[in-house]
UniProtKB/TrEMBL annotation:
Subunit structure comment from the entry: Part of the 50S ribosomal subunit.
The species this protein was found in: Bombiscardovia coagulans
Protein name: Large ribosomal subunit protein uL30
Listed GO MF terms: structural constituent of ribosome
Alphabetical UniProt keywords: Ribonucleoprotein, Ribosomal protein
GO biological processes: translation
Gene Ontology CC terms: cytosolic large ribosomal subunit
Highest taxon of source: Bacteria
Name of the encoding gene: rpmD
Amino acid sequence: MSKQLKVTLVRGFANQTQRQKVNAQSLGLRKIGQSVVIDDTPVYRGMIDKVRHLVTVEEAD
């Protein structure tokens, strides 16, 4: 079983670029406080890195 990450949106999309908004929405994040559990892959890590100022990341159980 691969490692998984829990990603939570902690800031809104106001004053963010369209690219950052699309990246966060591609992760499955739409509303502040919403969390998603995703696989820990290089693709998702790159997406998280682009919006790291909007989200918190922790390992999922």
